[in-house]
Amino acid sequence: xxxxxxxxxxxxxxxxxxxxxxxxxxxxxxxxxxxxxxxxxxxxxxxxxxxxxxxxxxxxxxxxxxxxxxxxxxxxxxxxxxxxxxxxxxxxxxxxxxxxxxxxxxxxxxxxxxxxxxxxxxxxxxxxxxxxxxxxxxxxxxxxxxxxxxxxxxxxxxxxxxxxxxxxxxxxxxxxxxxxxxxxxxxxxxxxxxxxxxxxxxxxxxxxxxxxxxxxxxxxxxxxxxxxxxxxxxxxxxxxxxxxxxxxxxxxxxxxxxxxxxxxxxxxxxxxxxxxxxxxxxxxxxxxxxx
Length: 291
Prior knowledge:
Layout: H1 2-10, H2 12-34, E1 56-62, E2 65-72, H3 83-119, H4 121-135, H5 139-150, H6 154-180, H7 184-191, H8 196-204, H9 209-233, H10 244-251, H11 261-290
Antiparallel strand pairs: 1-2
Helix pairs in contact: 2-3, 2-11, 3-4, 3-6, 3-8, 3-9, 4-6, 5-6, 6-9, 9-10, 9-11, 10-11
């Protein structure tokens, strides 16, 4: 607790970024309880309410009840869906893609990079060759190829993004383990007869928490951007599932009209969340360098 307080007091940008991330996490986790359109994917369509301006109010009639006054804080889209609900529902997809992709990249990259750096020899040479081959392929192109190979859908996007990001984790962990494998306390562990997994995973990796936190937060931001790009191209989240990327794709033509907010709001959400994770990543990098 003391170290966290010291960290955030010395890094105000990281504190703002962390609070913004926490806010969106709470919003995504609780949105079905309070958003105006609680239906799955916020897909309640009313064509007669199409393209209402932000703050517009209408009187909805119900055959089994009295009329209801409804206010659309962010207006509606071309299908008459509450746009605030669509934005909020889309936040859950972006955050869950980041979580799953980062966890998958850590589960693959950490053990592979750590063992390659510690063991060296033919195993390290083989892993290094694999890393160089995958590293030479542009990330978005690799994710797009994996997504098309596994089929469209958000589950495939999770896997594709995670399988493309483990390379960066493995490279960082391998380099750090190489720098630590010959220091005194690691040599002492070998002399005492400790097994390789125990030395690597219980003694070396705990000392790499700083670099791992840096790469994880950076990868989280990258995963959000990649998912948005895939959804914008139509190979990510599929209709009617809302994603900030496909919300931009559906409304980018409205930028030059009076409804530019339909594309600008999800774009601003993506930018702000990516900047928040980048602020955390940069702060972790500075903090780990000072330790």
